[in-house]
Design brief:
The protein is mainly β. The strands form 15 sheets. An eight-stranded mixed beta sheet has the order 22-24-27-26-25-28-29-23, with no helix packed on it. It has a five-stranded mixed beta sheet with strand order 7-13-12-9-10, with no helix packed on it. It starts with 9 loop residues before the first strand and ends with a strand.
Length: about 850
């Protein structure tokens, strides 16, 4: 059997933890038995201080008293069954070794109580609690700002029973001396030129807060160490602008705290007047110079001289890349030159540089220096740019000047420009010049007629463009195609069809060849003579169409259209036409039909086909201006309809108006509760009619559509449905709408004298009194129920209006065999279920 290689568990109690010998405790030596060396140690509680390889423990690194366990694991090569053993170390409490006295000045603000311990051997355990003389717990770092005097603090760590039955404490005595308080100084900056009238008796102490009294004052204008009042206006008059220091000193009452002084700074400055000063920004450039250009501003003093010296210039740059900046430069003999960052000027535009403030770098900016409209503009001119520009020369005839349209020049500023252009193609000319004014990316220039000698196609190319104001020049490559056209040569004809008076007269011009955009002139002869008319037309496939204005065609009869001139709008060239004409007939319009008002009943469903007049030459419409006739099947409604007549020539008359009246009779109205009857009265259709607002004219059917007419004597039935229509004596029309009535026969309020409950019946099949029935009860008590029992109380029958008769055969009670009920006496209970009427009990005889 293998040995226990880790040895036996061990323990040790260390009460005098501050003894230096406890810095090196061999845990292996504390194991019992025969442990095998060469194993490893683990700190089970994470208490620190253990060398896990050697098993040497520095117990003074453990931060609080208590018991701590350490496990030894024997080497795996020993082959042990039990390869672990534990050593328990108990550490006694240690509250530290105090100095114990400490002295501090209150302006040190805080004091760490642990700093009052002698830590040359070891620091106190950290699981203790600090308390003041009142026994209140406090932090180890305390604020001493408001303390003055001697204070006692005690540090207590918990007991460890093996070493001490009670907690262990150490005491520190702290003496705090109050530091002199000179107060918190403020600053004051004033403009000596304008602000000092109210400061001839200025109390400097108003710039000081929280100071001890009894201090001493010193500084320019102070008349005595106890008098803080000074005449700042006199100081400025005597010493001029500058920075003035005033000191308030509080003496210390002990050797621990030094004397303290507060320094109050008062700055008196001189206002600068830049009235009449000028700013010049150098210099305007063209866009292509941006990459290499430098920029500066020159400020020249105005009516007031500006002292030589260094100044801060604050300025604003407006424009595409604008912003605010500042720089430092020097006035020398009334002139200051300052640089301007080129990043403000990264693109073309107008930039306004405005000086917003100028002040000495040695000052506080207390004066509102006088700066009035100190600004200048810097121009970075765009290069003329014809990118994406379109040249569109107007077509011209041979030897005629051509106007060239420049469009889409979105990158070209408004202004005047000189251009250089070339012509190539059927007309050829190089380095020709022209001038044009451009507005909104649009301009024009003229190519002289002597350059358009040949008909055909040419290309015009602008090669250079110069802004005549900025002198900025740029190369260009704007192109356009130019056509120089010959005179038109066309053999035209004209066709016009016969029409009705006031109808559009369409004219077709043919034989136009390849012409597409033309101007045509013509005259009218015959029944409608008219002077020459001119219009612009679009031609396609050699044809063009137009409509002769109706104001020129007021008469029926024969009219002639004669073409007189044809112009090719694309070329601007025209030709006179002769003997190009056609004649046509304008047919008269027939008179409107004669019609009369017409009346129908709505219930008859009259349609357009029922109107008069009728026939193929007549068409009916729903408005006088409508051109789409109504179908014969359209149902008529009250209102105006319009009829037109068409002549054999196809001409349609004006519309005649017909007033159509569709009569209808209102549906009958049922009186309140008019559907309710008592079945004992044997009500009929006549009674239902009398319950409407039109008893003498209403008629009833058993269905709303295609039903049977019911006579006045037809009996009414319970829950029967009846459909009523009214007939107008005036129009003779039945009502289009109807009323639907569901009749109830249970509206019986009074029980008749002859109402009785039979006391017997004879179910022998002779057809007489074969069942037990209470006559008319379903009218009087429609919700009644009836129960019948034998003399033993067994239920024989349950009935209501849906099951009103007992035939003496079927039993109703489960457990009793079905069959024929024997002769004898039976008992009933009748529940009326109306008007809170109590049930009625009785007996009846069954005799077969």
């Amino acid at each position: 059997m293998n040995a226990q290689c880790a040895g036996n568990d061990g323990n040790q109690i260390i009460c005098n933890i501050s003894d230096p010998v406890n810095q090196s405790v061999s845990l292996f030596a504390l194991l019992g038995g025969s442990p095998v060396p060469g194993g490893t140690w683990t700190d089970d509680n994470g208490s620190r201080g253990l060398n896990t390889s050697t098993g040497i423990l520095n117990a003074q690194l453990i931060r609080s008293g208590g018991s701590y366990q350490y496990t030894y694991t024997a080497p795996s090569t020993a082959g042990c069954t039990d390869n672990k053993a534990t050593v328990t170390i108990t550490i006694g409490p240690f509250s530290g070794d105090p100095a114990p006295y400490a002295t501090k000045c209150s302006d040190e603000q805080t004091f760490n109580l642990f700093s009052a311990f002698n830590s040359t051997v070891m620091s106190p355990h950290n699981n203790g609690v600090w308390t003041n003389s009142a026994g209140q717990a406090v932090s180890s770092t305390i604020s001493i700002t408001e303390m003055q005097g001697t204070y006692q603090f005690t540090y207590t760590v918990p007991a460890v029973l093996a070493c001490s039955p009670s907690p262990v404490s150490s005491t520190v005595v702290l003496t705090v001396f109050r530091a002199p308080e000179p107060g918190t100084p403020g600053e004051l900056a004033l403009c000596g030129t304008t602000d000092l009238d109210g400061y001839t008796s200025f109390d400097v102490s108003t710039l000081l807060t929280g100071q001890d009294p009894g201090g001493r004052w010193s500084g320019h204008g102070i008349t005595g160490p106890t008098n803080p009042v000074v005449d700042l206006k006199q100081v400025y008059a005597t010493y001029g602008p500058g920075v003035y220091n005033y000191f308030y000193t509080v003496l210390s009452n002990d050797a621990t705290c030094p004397d303290k002084s507060a320094n109050i700074v008062i700055t008196l400055e001189e206002r600068l007047d830049f009235t009449g000063a000028t700013l010049v920004i150098a210099e305007d450039i063209c866009e292509d110079e941006i990459a290499t250009a430098g920029y500066s501003g020159v400020i020249t003093e105005g009516t007031s001289s500006i002292p030589n010296g260094q100044y801060r210039i604050v300025f604003n740059v407006s424009g595409p890349n604008g912003g605010t900046d500042s720089t430092t430069s020097s006035f020398v003999n009334g002139r200051l030159i300052f640089p301007i960052n080129s990043q403000f000027f990264r693109q073309a535009g107008t930039f306004t540089v405005t000086i917003t403030d100028i002040f000495s770098t040695n000052g506080k900016g207390a004066c509102n220096n006088i700066i009035n409209n100190l600004s200048d503009d810097l121009h970075i001119y765009k290069l003329p740019n014809l990118d994406n520009a379109i040249l569109t020369p107007d077509p011209a005839c041979q030897n005629k000047s051509s106007v060239v349209q420049l469009t889409n020049a979105a990158s070209l500023d408004d202004g005047n420009y000189d251009i250089v252009y070339n012509l190539t193609g059927d007309n050829f000319a190089l380095n020709q010049t022209a001038n044009m004014t451009v507005t909104g990316g649009v301009g024009t220039f003229t190519i002289l007629g002597n350059l358009n000698a040949n008909s055909g196609a040419s290309v015009i190319t602008i090669t250079k463009i110069t802004n005549t104001v900025t002198t900025c020049t740029n190369n260009a490559n704007a192109r356009g195609n130019m056509i120089i056209n010959a005179l038109p040569n066309a053999s035209a004809g004209v066709i016009v069809n016969d029409v009705c008076l006031n109808d559009p007269v369409n004219v077709r011009v043919w034989g136009l060849g390849s012409l597409t955009d033309i101007t045509l002139s013509y005259v009218l002869l015959g029944s409608n003579p008219a002077p020459e008319q001119t219009l612009t037309l679009t031609a396609s496939g050699g044809n063009a169409d137009f409509v002769i204005p109706s104001a020129l065609l007021l008469n029926s009869g024969s009219t002639v259209v004669s073409l007189t001139n044809l112009k090719n709008n694309i070329t601007g060239c025209d030709v006179n036409l002769t003997n190009v004409l056609d004649s046509f007939i304008i047919n008269p319009i027939p008179a409107a039909p004669v019609v009369n008002p017409q009346t129908f009943c709505k219930v008859d469903g009259a349609t357009i086909a029922d109107l008069i007049p009728n026939g193929n030459q007549f068409k009916w419409y729903d408005s006088a201006t409508s051109t789409t006739p109504l179908a014969d099947t359209v149902i008529l409604q009250s209102g105006n309809y319009y009829v037109k007549e068409t002549s054999p020539a196809g001409c349609t008359s004006d519309a005649a108006t017909v007033v159509i009246t569709i009569n209808d009779t209102p549906a009958p109205v049922l009186n309140t509760d008019g559907q309710n009857f008592c079945g004992l009265n044997n009500p009929t259709i006549a009674d239902l009619s009398n319950n409407t607002n039109v008893p003498s004219t209403v008629v009833w059917y058993d269905s709303p559509n295609n039903g049977n007419l019911l006579t006045a004597s037809t009996p009414l039935t319970e829950q029967g449905k009846y459909y009523g229509f009214d007939l107008s004596n005036t129009t003779g029309c039945f009502s289009y709408d109807h009323i639907e009535v569901t009749v109830t026969l249970t509206d019986c309020d009074n029980v008749p004298n002859d109402f009785f409950i039979p006391d017997g019946f004879s179910p022998n099949g002779d057809g007489v009194n074969d069942s037990f029935v209470i006559k008319d009860i379903d009218f009087l008590y429609p919700d009644y129920t009836l129960e019948i029992f034998n003399r033993y109380g067994n239920g024989m029958y349950k009935g209501d209006k849906n099951k009103p008769a007992w035939d003496g055969i079927n039993y109703e009670k489960s457990g009793i065999g079905s069959g024929v009920a024997p002769n004898g006496v039976y008992f009933y209970i009748l529940y009326f279920n109306k008007d809170n009427k109590p049930p009625k009990q009785g007996r009846l005889y069954l005799n077969r």
